[in-house]
């Protein structure tokens, strides 16, 4: 069973259709790139997949749960349990350290997690993404790529099954983008599925499957080596 299954998803804003007939199946540990011209609806689609927005019609199954039937409260609960989200600019508090920025969202949680587990996980991820030496540095002193990696770690703290990334390398140069991309690819080994919206051919080249979003649906691209 795929982790994510979208069937005939459509989205309208005030009666105007952004896209329709979107079908997508994402396997465990698969990275997916979604391309498409500006304004076609990539962010809208990713917001739906991330549980931030509702579909107008169609079915969205995530890990056996039907998100298309849920209200916004239940969606928020699924999001906390199963989904990580990062965007082009991860919002950060400049005067706080990388570590503090990673744990800020946890301050607002009603149910506190075991802090030893959290510390261990941050340690593992920061080694994996090679920013372990920067955890106690203030965010304002870090480079764009380093900040983006802090954002990825923050989105992974709750061990999501799915990571949704909206142009995560859009503000980065090619070399730094590649480092971030390699980090995202590392997640496959842990079985995390990743869906990335991107304009970059380089990003798409590093994903397992590439789709083009059109008003009439998602079209799979065949990869040429
Ligand atoms: N909340 C909203 N209310 C009304 N229209 C919206 C809303 N969000 C997005 N849209 C419209 O939906 C369309 C798709 O926008 P979206 O941001 O998803 O495109 P995109 O493919 O991500 O573009 P880009 O590549 O520039 O990021 C646009 O026409 C946009 O104006
Ligand atoms: Mg967008």
From TrEMBL:
GO CC annotation, single: plasma membrane
Family annotation (Pfam families): ABC_tran
Alphabetical keyword list: ATP-binding, Lipoprotein, Nucleotide-binding
Top-rank taxon: Bacteria
InterPro entries: AAA+_ATPase, ABC_transporter-like_ATP-bd, ABC_transporter-like_CS, ABC_transpr_LolD-like, P-loop_NTPase
Keyword RNA-binding carried by entry: no
UniProt-recorded Gene Ontology molecular function terms: ATP binding; ATP hydrolysis activity; transmembrane transporter activity
Domain ABC transporter span(s) in chain numbering: 4-223
Protein's name in the database: Lipoprotein-releasing system ATP-binding protein
């Amino acid at each position: 069973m795929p982790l994510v299954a979208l069937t005939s998803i459509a989205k309208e804003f005030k009666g105007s259709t952004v896209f329709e007939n979107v079908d997508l199946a994402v396997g465990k540990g698969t990275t997916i790139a979604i391309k498409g011209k500006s304004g076609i609806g990539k962010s809208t689609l990713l917001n739906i997949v991330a549980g931030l927005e509702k579909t107008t019609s169609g079915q969205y199954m995530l890990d056996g749960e039907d998100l298309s039937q849920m209200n916004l409260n239940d969606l928020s609960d699924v999001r906390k349990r199963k989904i990580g989200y990062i965007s082009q600019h991860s919002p950060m508090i400049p005067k706080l350290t990388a570590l503090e920025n990673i744990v800020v969202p946890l301050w607002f949680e009603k149910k506190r997690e075991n802090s030893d587990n959290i510390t261990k996980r941050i340690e593992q991820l920061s080694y994996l993404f090679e920013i372990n030496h920067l955890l106690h540095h203030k965010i304002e002193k870090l480079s764009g790529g380093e900040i983006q990696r802090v954002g990825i770690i923050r989105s992974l703290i709750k061990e999501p099954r799915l990571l949704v990334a909206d142009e995560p390398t859009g503000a980065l140069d090619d070399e730094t983008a590649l480092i971030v991309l390699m980090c995202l690819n590392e997640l496959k080994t842990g079985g995390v599925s990743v869906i990335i919206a991107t304009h970059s051919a380089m990003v798409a080249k590093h994903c397992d499957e590439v789709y083009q979003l059109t008003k009439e649906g998602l079209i799979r691209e065949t990869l040429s080596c």
